[in-house]
Amino acid sequence: MNPNLESDLLRTFVAIAETKNFTRASEIVGRTQSAVSIQMKKLEEIVDGKLFDRGPRGVTLTSSGEQLVKDAKRILSLLDQAAASLQSDPLNGTVRIGIPEEYGGTFLPCVLSRFAKTHPQAEVTVRCAQSAALNTGLEKGELDLVVLHEEATKIGGEILLNNPVVWITSDTYRQHECVPMPVAVYDSGCWWRDWALACLEQQKKDYKISYISSSTFGLQAAVSSGIAVGILAQSQIPPDCRELTPEEGFPRLQGTNIVLRQRVQHECSTKSGMAQAIRDAFQASRA
């Protein structure tokens, strides 16, 4: 094995191992998917072995990959600790973050973890919940910074990313061709649910509600398993599913933004540093 393992290669490798998806890993490391593929080809050449097996539901590690990922995590942890020890002005204090559940397993936790390692004296807590609950937590003073989904027509926070809401279906089960068409929706009171049902009525589609969930993960599972079609943010489409197009009779729904809100009246350097880390994460995801 060539010992010259670059840390950037290891960070990308760990991101893929954790997300089991090259696209999501590219969002975490702030690179294009093609660049990530090139990185992993280079890493496999360095270790002289295959690290991934690709399947219909994502990628899995080979035995060589399982062995490398343990060492890679230890190496990256030591590098992050070394970087933290060299900080001339580390931040301290407490910052309480709220993020939507669908980002609980993707790039934001990695950014928050790196922030904690870079600023070891800062105490960071994270709450994952739906946007409405997070916004309530901010208003009650239980959270300092929140990332929320918000209708594009509203202006109530700093826009981090425009994330269109689209209809999706399974490539395998093609439930959008069924009559009546089974639909997966959020619980009552969710504006995404209202959008979906209004669109179906406007298009005069014969449908039935087959699955109701309070979580994005539930909707992803319903569509992936062939129970129903559903609506999700464009960035949250599972790898075995695809967006339904206007040509197929599924027009784009209203836009949605991902926004950052914070308690300005309680601003401090630690909270400002975390807010910038969140901005940087979303900026990298657009690169």
From TrEMBL:
One of its GO terms (molecular function) is DNA binding. Residues 5-62 form the HTH lysR-type domain. Pfam families: HTH_1, LysR_substrate. Coiled coil: none annotated. It comes from the Bacteria. The keyword Nucleotidyltransferase does not apply. InterPro entries: LTTR, LysR_HTH_N, LysR_subst-bd, WH-like_DNA-bd_sf, WH_DNA-bd_sf. Belongs to the LysR transcriptional regulatory family. This is HTH lysR-type domain-containing protein.
